[in-house]
Amino acid sequence: MRCCDVEKLWDDMRDALEPHRTQVIKHLRECPPCQELYEQYEGIAYCLTCLPPPEPSATLVPKIIDHIRTAVKATLPDSVAKMHSPLGLLFVAFRESGITYVALDRNEGDEAAFQRIKARLGRSVIPSTAPGWVSDTLSAFFNTHVTNFERVDISALTPFEQATLRATAKIPAGEVRSYGWVAAAIGQPNAARAVGGVMARNPVPLLYPCHRVVDCEGRLHNYEYGIDVKARILELEGCHSYKR
């Protein structure tokens, strides 16, 4: 048995585990360097057992409590309400932190819609009635085409997704910008295709206006609910400077 093998097996030996205990002891008796190392390690271990238990820092308990609160909040389900809008029926998911999901009704039934929302958010959802602040946020958007972003929560998205959606929020209502413009706005001028992917997965369309993003030729290009719906939203905002 080599010295390096013995060093790896000291813990096993200490716990009286077989089949190497006898071999380890035999090697230690015959190898002065390993005896010296063993004595050093055992001495350190003994000194550590003599130390008093450390007192927790004054900030430790509050940090633990905050961590527990955050973990509990992350596992709570999102509430989902059905709301009427100028575009038709909407499914709107929300938490205490803000609106997390907006989707147009696809006439698929509530169960299928809830399953789709659950899959997109990655957590459970429960049916609910929209509180006043949710209704007000959606109503304000359709009346002014401006979003109160303090009422929208995209914190679960990746930093790239968040930056991309925040760039769309800089596009004025009634105007459009290209995927390349959004990519440049977030400092990633070669990421136009990735920007398009974020637009396709946007969990809060309308509020973060991916409908205002078109291709480099001004064409509507694509939209989760079809380009006819995209055109209708833009026209509600007074925008006609796009191509089909």
Features:
244 residues, two-stranded parallel ribbon, alpha/beta, Arc Repressor Mutant, subunit A, 10 helices, Double Stranded RNA Binding Domain
Please explain how this structure is put together.
The protein is an alpha/beta fold and 244 residues long. The chain has three domains: 3-50, no CATH class; 80-150, Double Stranded RNA Binding Domain (2-Layer Sandwich), CATH 3.30.160; 154-236, Winged helix-like DNA-binding domain superfamily/Winged helix DNA-binding domain (Arc Repressor Mutant, subunit A), CATH 1.10.10.10. Helix content is 49%, strand content 12%. It has helices at 3-14, 21-30, 32-50, 60-75, 110-121, 132-144, 159-168, 179-185, 192-201, 227-236; strands at 78-85, 88-95, 98-104, 125-127, 177-178, 213-214. It has a four-stranded mixed β-sheet, sandwiched between helices. 22% of the residues are buried. The model has no long low-confidence stretch (mean pLDDT 86).
What class, by secondary structure content?
alpha/beta
How many β-strands, per DSSP? 6
- Spatial separation of the terminal alpha carbons: 77 Å
What is the general shape?
elongated
Produce a short descriptive summary.
The protein has 244 residues and is an alpha/beta fold. The protein is built from 10 helices and 6 strands, in the order ααααβββαβααβααβα. Strands 3-2-1-4 form a 4-stranded mixed sheet, sandwiched between helices. It has a two-stranded parallel ribbon with strand order 5-6.
